[in-house]
Design a protein that fits this description.
Length: about 290
Amino acid sequence: MRALTSIEHLTTDELLYLVKRARQLKAGSPPQVKDGLVAANLFFEPSTRTKMSFEMAERKLGLTVLPFEAGFSSATKGESLYDTVKTLEAIGVDVLVIRHPENNYYEPIIDQVKPVIINGGDGTGNHPTQSLLDLMTMLEEFETLEGKTVTIVGDLAHSRVARSNVHVLSKLGAQIQFVSPPEWQAEFQVLFSLDEAIETSDVIMLLRVQHERHDGTQSFTKEQYHEEYGLTEARMAAMKDNAIVLHPAPFNRGVEIADAVVEGDKSRIFEQMKNGVYMRMAILEFLLKEEAE
């Protein structure tokens, strides 16, 4: 396995191994990556958490991180992604983390280049490393997802996080339900009442309302969305005693989530961010070890 482009490519055993290894790294286990490797993070869409946690993970593993800024690269002159990747391959980069606005951007290049490719998010398609850190956070809390109900709430139509998480959660025995306005339900079968869903949920996974991908035709305001589909303080209080709140962030405060909920006692949002570093360390270690073999 020379790449991680979709969560579907991982077996259940591999999913559980990566969670176990990430938890070991979080507990202080020394990383196992050979010296002298070089990474570059090619982000053609804005990112804080994914890009910076990958860079932190790479540095913790002892990799040299080659700076790359899409806005100052030859991509602005029309260079193709393939040619950018081949350039970095030629100068000695071993692993590339790529975020790109096009779905499945990796398909034309994946078998044509030598560096390990990790998908940092493609369009509205996949976000495998986010799903893995979400899984890690849930298993830290519950140890098993068998019999647990995970409710994914919000902008399903534009969410690569939702699509990736469906595969992970299904493989590990969770019950999944969806809540969304009809405009954003896409291919999912949804409930339209968050209040109803909360009663049975062990995990409420909120999605960012992706304003930048909308055409302005939605039939509600931000305030109306918050009232109908947002996780308010009252809704958090109605959750099960041991239920938790997740959000891939960045979050729109006062839209999909109330200010007080972000750091409320049921929120694991900042723990997700912390876990992102250790999960991405585990992924890099796993792929680079296989590459070495």
